[in-house]
Specification:
Oligomer: single chain
Number of strands: 11
Largest sheet: 6 strands, antiparallel, barrel
Helix content: 10-25%
CATH topology of the largest domain: Rossmann fold
Structural class: alpha/beta
Strand content: 25-35%
Radius of gyration: 18 Å
Length: 255
Protein backbone atom coordinates (compact mmCIF):
# COMPACT_ATOMS: atom_id res chain seq x y z
CA UNK A 1 0.00 0.00 0.00
CA UNK A 2 1.57 3.33 -1.03
CA UNK A 3 2.44 5.84 1.67
CA UNK A 4 0.03 8.79 2.02
CA UNK A 5 1.02 11.78 -0.07
CA UNK A 6 2.90 14.65 1.54
CA UNK A 7 2.16 18.25 0.59
CA UNK A 8 2.62 21.74 1.97
CA UNK A 9 -0.44 23.86 2.72
CA UNK A 10 -0.84 27.51 3.61
CA UNK A 11 -2.75 28.86 6.59
CA UNK A 12 -5.58 31.00 5.17
CA UNK A 13 -7.23 32.06 8.44
CA UNK A 14 -8.01 30.97 11.99
CA UNK A 15 -11.40 31.12 13.69
CA UNK A 16 -12.60 30.68 17.26
CA UNK A 17 -15.32 28.03 17.02
CA UNK A 18 -15.80 28.13 20.80
CA UNK A 19 -13.63 29.08 23.80
CA UNK A 20 -11.92 25.69 23.69
CA UNK A 21 -11.89 24.98 19.96
CA UNK A 22 -9.87 26.75 17.27
CA UNK A 23 -10.41 26.25 13.53
CA UNK A 24 -7.46 26.53 11.16
CA UNK A 25 -8.36 26.87 7.49
CA UNK A 26 -5.69 25.57 5.12
CA UNK A 27 -5.36 26.22 1.40
CA UNK A 28 -2.86 27.10 -1.27
CA UNK A 29 -1.99 25.44 -4.55
CA UNK A 30 -1.59 21.98 -3.02
CA UNK A 31 -5.10 22.11 -1.54
CA UNK A 32 -6.65 22.07 -5.01
CA UNK A 33 -5.25 18.61 -5.82
CA UNK A 34 -6.19 17.15 -2.44
CA UNK A 35 -8.53 14.14 -2.84
CA UNK A 36 -12.19 15.17 -2.77
CA UNK A 37 -14.88 14.12 -0.27
CA UNK A 38 -12.47 13.75 2.66
CA UNK A 39 -14.47 15.34 5.49
CA UNK A 40 -13.99 13.12 8.61
CA UNK A 41 -10.78 11.61 7.19
CA UNK A 42 -7.57 12.44 9.01
CA UNK A 43 -4.14 13.66 8.11
CA UNK A 44 -0.92 14.24 9.99
CA UNK A 45 0.68 17.61 10.61
CA UNK A 46 4.47 17.42 10.30
CA UNK A 47 6.31 19.60 12.80
CA UNK A 48 10.07 19.85 12.19
CA UNK A 49 12.45 19.12 15.06
CA UNK A 50 15.79 20.83 15.30
CA UNK A 51 18.59 18.30 15.03
CA UNK A 52 16.29 15.50 13.81
CA UNK A 53 15.63 14.21 10.31
CA UNK A 54 12.12 13.03 11.11
CA UNK A 55 9.40 15.50 12.12
CA UNK A 56 6.94 15.06 14.96
CA UNK A 57 3.53 14.05 13.60
CA UNK A 58 0.17 14.99 15.07
CA UNK A 59 -3.10 13.54 13.78
CA UNK A 60 -6.24 15.61 13.15
CA UNK A 61 -9.63 15.22 11.48
CA UNK A 62 -10.79 17.14 8.43
CA UNK A 63 -13.94 18.99 9.53
CA UNK A 64 -14.89 20.61 6.20
CA UNK A 65 -13.48 20.44 2.71
CA UNK A 66 -14.14 22.86 -0.13
CA UNK A 67 -12.59 23.06 -3.60
CA UNK A 68 -9.57 25.00 -2.37
CA UNK A 69 -9.78 24.96 1.43
CA UNK A 70 -9.72 22.49 4.32
CA UNK A 71 -10.92 23.22 7.86
CA UNK A 72 -9.30 21.51 10.84
CA UNK A 73 -10.66 22.00 14.37
CA UNK A 74 -8.28 21.83 17.34
CA UNK A 75 -9.48 21.12 20.88
CA UNK A 76 -7.64 23.56 23.16
CA UNK A 77 -6.37 22.60 26.58
CA UNK A 78 -3.82 23.60 29.20
CA UNK A 79 -1.00 22.96 29.19
CA UNK A 80 -1.09 23.25 25.42
CA UNK A 81 0.42 20.46 23.38
CA UNK A 82 2.53 20.89 20.28
CA UNK A 83 -0.36 21.08 17.80
CA UNK A 84 -2.81 23.06 19.95
CA UNK A 85 -0.09 25.64 20.68
CA UNK A 86 0.58 25.91 16.95
CA UNK A 87 -3.14 26.39 16.24
CA UNK A 88 -3.36 29.21 18.79
CA UNK A 89 -0.31 31.09 17.53
CA UNK A 90 -0.10 30.43 13.78
CA UNK A 91 -0.69 33.37 11.44
CA UNK A 92 -2.23 33.52 7.95
CA UNK A 93 0.42 33.02 5.30
CA UNK A 94 2.47 30.53 7.30
CA UNK A 95 2.95 27.09 5.79
CA UNK A 96 2.77 23.59 7.23
CA UNK A 97 3.59 20.17 5.79
CA UNK A 98 0.92 17.50 6.05
CA UNK A 99 0.69 13.82 5.13
CA UNK A 100 -2.51 12.10 4.13
CA UNK A 101 -5.39 11.71 4.01
CA UNK A 102 -5.97 8.53 5.94
CA UNK A 103 -9.27 6.62 5.75
CA UNK A 104 -12.56 8.04 6.96
CA UNK A 105 -14.21 6.46 10.00
CA UNK A 106 -17.95 6.48 9.45
CA UNK A 107 -20.94 4.85 11.10
CA UNK A 108 -22.53 1.86 9.40
CA UNK A 109 -25.40 3.47 7.53
CA UNK A 110 -27.23 0.11 7.27
CA UNK A 111 -27.89 0.11 11.03
CA UNK A 112 -31.36 0.37 12.56
CA UNK A 113 -30.24 3.18 14.85
CA UNK A 114 -27.10 5.07 15.85
CA UNK A 115 -25.13 5.77 19.02
CA UNK A 116 -22.18 8.15 18.83
CA UNK A 117 -20.04 9.01 21.84
CA UNK A 118 -17.08 11.35 22.12
CA UNK A 119 -15.36 14.40 23.51
CA UNK A 120 -14.01 17.59 21.97
CA UNK A 121 -11.24 15.75 20.13
CA UNK A 122 -13.77 13.64 18.21
CA UNK A 123 -16.41 16.35 17.87
CA UNK A 124 -15.29 17.15 14.28
CA UNK A 125 -15.62 13.51 13.16
CA UNK A 126 -18.94 13.07 14.96
CA UNK A 127 -20.23 16.27 13.36
CA UNK A 128 -19.47 14.95 9.87
CA UNK A 129 -21.14 11.62 10.65
CA UNK A 130 -24.27 13.39 11.87
CA UNK A 131 -24.46 15.51 8.73
CA UNK A 132 -24.45 12.38 6.57
CA UNK A 133 -27.11 10.40 8.45
CA UNK A 134 -30.42 9.89 6.64
CA UNK A 135 -33.24 12.25 7.62
CA UNK A 136 -35.20 9.42 9.25
CA UNK A 137 -32.29 8.21 11.41
CA UNK A 138 -32.91 7.45 15.08
CA UNK A 139 -30.44 7.39 17.94
CA UNK A 140 -28.40 9.26 20.50
CA UNK A 141 -25.20 11.28 20.63
CA UNK A 142 -23.25 11.85 23.86
CA UNK A 143 -20.68 14.63 23.66
CA UNK A 144 -18.38 15.78 26.44
CA UNK A 145 -17.23 19.41 26.24
CA UNK A 146 -15.27 21.63 28.59
CA UNK A 147 -17.88 24.33 29.15
CA UNK A 148 -21.47 25.24 28.24
CA UNK A 149 -20.02 27.80 25.84
CA UNK A 150 -18.40 24.93 23.88
CA UNK A 151 -21.78 23.47 22.88
CA UNK A 152 -22.03 23.80 19.11
CA UNK A 153 -25.13 23.91 16.88
CA UNK A 154 -24.84 20.61 15.01
CA UNK A 155 -26.78 19.52 11.95
CA UNK A 156 -28.52 16.24 12.76
CA UNK A 157 -31.74 14.32 11.98
CA UNK A 158 -34.67 15.15 14.30
CA UNK A 159 -34.76 11.57 15.58
CA UNK A 160 -31.16 11.68 16.80
CA UNK A 161 -31.00 13.25 20.25
CA UNK A 162 -27.97 15.19 21.46
CA UNK A 163 -26.81 14.84 25.07
CA UNK A 164 -24.09 17.26 26.22
CA UNK A 165 -21.87 16.42 29.19
CA UNK A 166 -20.11 19.45 30.70
CA UNK A 167 -16.67 18.51 32.04
CA UNK A 168 -14.42 21.40 33.14
CA UNK A 169 -11.70 18.94 34.19
CA UNK A 170 -10.42 15.62 32.92
CA UNK A 171 -11.77 12.33 34.30
CA UNK A 172 -8.93 9.94 35.24
CA UNK A 173 -11.42 7.16 36.01
CA UNK A 174 -12.86 7.25 32.51
CA UNK A 175 -16.38 6.75 33.89
CA UNK A 176 -18.07 10.03 33.01
CA UNK A 177 -18.97 9.17 29.42
CA UNK A 178 -19.97 5.59 30.16
CA UNK A 179 -22.21 6.80 33.01
CA UNK A 180 -23.97 9.11 30.55
CA UNK A 181 -24.40 6.27 28.06
CA UNK A 182 -25.93 4.05 30.75
CA UNK A 183 -28.72 6.60 31.21
CA UNK A 184 -29.89 6.21 27.60
CA UNK A 185 -32.56 3.79 26.39
CA UNK A 186 -31.29 0.95 24.20
CA UNK A 187 -33.40 1.12 21.06
CA UNK A 188 -34.82 -1.78 19.05
CA UNK A 189 -32.76 -3.35 16.30
CA UNK A 190 -29.06 -3.39 15.49
CA UNK A 191 -27.21 -0.16 16.30
CA UNK A 192 -24.13 1.34 14.76
CA UNK A 193 -21.94 2.36 17.69
CA UNK A 194 -19.20 4.92 17.04
CA UNK A 195 -17.06 6.14 19.94
CA UNK A 196 -13.78 8.05 20.17
CA UNK A 197 -12.40 9.82 23.22
CA UNK A 198 -9.67 9.72 25.89
CA UNK A 199 -7.96 6.35 26.44
CA UNK A 200 -9.46 5.54 29.86
CA UNK A 201 -12.93 6.58 28.74
CA UNK A 202 -12.58 4.42 25.64
CA UNK A 203 -11.67 1.38 27.73
CA UNK A 204 -14.65 1.91 30.05
CA UNK A 205 -17.02 2.27 27.09
CA UNK A 206 -15.58 -0.77 25.33
CA UNK A 207 -16.04 -2.92 28.43
CA UNK A 208 -19.58 -1.63 28.90
CA UNK A 209 -20.59 -2.51 25.35
CA UNK A 210 -19.01 -5.95 25.61
CA UNK A 211 -20.96 -6.71 28.78
CA UNK A 212 -24.33 -5.26 27.81
CA UNK A 213 -24.81 -5.59 24.05
CA UNK A 214 -24.09 -7.83 21.09
CA UNK A 215 -22.87 -5.47 18.40
CA UNK A 216 -21.54 -6.86 15.11
CA UNK A 217 -17.96 -5.82 14.37
CA UNK A 218 -19.23 -4.26 11.15
CA UNK A 219 -21.35 -1.91 13.27
CA UNK A 220 -18.80 -1.06 15.97
CA UNK A 221 -16.01 1.52 15.90
CA UNK A 222 -14.20 2.57 19.06
CA UNK A 223 -10.88 4.35 19.41
CA UNK A 224 -8.87 6.45 21.82
CA UNK A 225 -7.82 9.76 20.28
CA UNK A 226 -5.58 10.76 23.20
CA UNK A 227 -4.38 9.67 26.62
CA UNK A 228 -4.18 11.83 29.69
CA UNK A 229 -0.62 12.79 30.61
CA UNK A 230 1.15 11.49 27.49
CA UNK A 231 1.91 12.84 24.02
CA UNK A 232 0.68 11.29 20.78
CA UNK A 233 3.85 9.28 20.24
CA UNK A 234 3.60 7.52 23.61
CA UNK A 235 -0.17 7.18 23.23
CA UNK A 236 0.32 5.22 20.01
CA UNK A 237 2.47 2.69 21.85
CA UNK A 238 -0.01 2.30 24.71
CA UNK A 239 -2.91 2.09 22.27
CA UNK A 240 -1.26 -0.65 20.22
CA UNK A 241 -0.47 -2.71 23.33
CA UNK A 242 -4.01 -2.28 24.63
CA UNK A 243 -5.53 -3.34 21.31
CA UNK A 244 -3.40 -6.48 21.21
CA UNK A 245 -4.39 -7.41 24.77
CA UNK A 246 -8.06 -6.75 24.09
CA UNK A 247 -8.11 -8.81 20.90
CA UNK A 248 -6.43 -11.67 22.72
CA UNK A 249 -8.94 -11.54 25.58
CA UNK A 250 -11.80 -11.23 23.10
CA UNK A 251 -10.59 -14.35 21.32
CA UNK A 252 -10.26 -16.25 24.59
CA UNK A 253 -13.77 -15.21 25.62
CA UNK A 254 -15.16 -16.58 22.35
CA UNK A 255 -13.59 -20.02 22.85
Amino acid sequence: MPAPAQRQLEVIRTTDVSPHMKRVTLGGLKATDFPTDQASAYFKFLFPREGHDKPLMRTYTIRHQRDDEIDVDFALHEPAGLASHWAQTVQPGERIDIRGPGPKKMVNFEADWFLLVGDMTSLPAISVNLEQLPDNAQGHVVLEVTDNSDIQPLQHPPGVKLHWVIAPSADPSGQRLVDAVKQLPWLTGTPSVWAACEFNSMRALRQHFRETAEIPKSHFYISSYWKMGVNEDDHKTVKRQDTEQWEQSDGNAAQ
